[in-house]
Design a protein that fits this description.
Layout lengths: L1 H24 L3 H7 L3 H24 L2 H14 L1 H18 L16
Helix pairs in contact: 1-5, 3-4, 4-5
Length: 113
């Protein structure tokens, strides 16, 4: 589990640095409007949001409806920085309370087919 925590922490740091660079030197929506003219940018954007949704499904299987809704909304708006935070939280819960790391169960231990 240490490798997962380390790798997730590295990803989180990379995302924070990347976001800092983008916010510090980018021109926001004017750049996005230009990029939307490139098909591979659109494909990449679809790919990212499909990944967000798939990750959201895993979260929904682990959390209460309210908690899952909050996490998923945060991921859809703030991106993989929040995904990294969620994974680090899941690892910490696994270590401290034995909450299943990957076998998806909702809070309260109810398995769903």
């Amino acid at each position: 589990m240490r490798w997962a925590c380390l790798l997730t922490s590295v990803c989180l740091a990379a995302m924070i640095v990347g976001l800092g660079y983008g916010f510090g030197f980018g021109d926001g929506w004017s750049e996005v409007r230009v990029l939307l003219d490139f098909p591979w940018f659109v494909v990449s954007l679809v790919d990212v949001y499909v990944g967000f949704i798939l990750f959201g499904i895993w979260i929904a299987m682990r959390e209460s409806r309210v908690a899952a809704s909050v996490w998923i909304l945060l991921i859809l708006t703030l991106g993989n920085v929040i995904s990294c935070v969620y994974v680090l939280r899941a690892i910490a819960l696994h270590r401290s309370r034995g909450v299943p790391w990957f076998p998806a169960t909702r809070a309260g231990g109810v398995d769903h087919p």
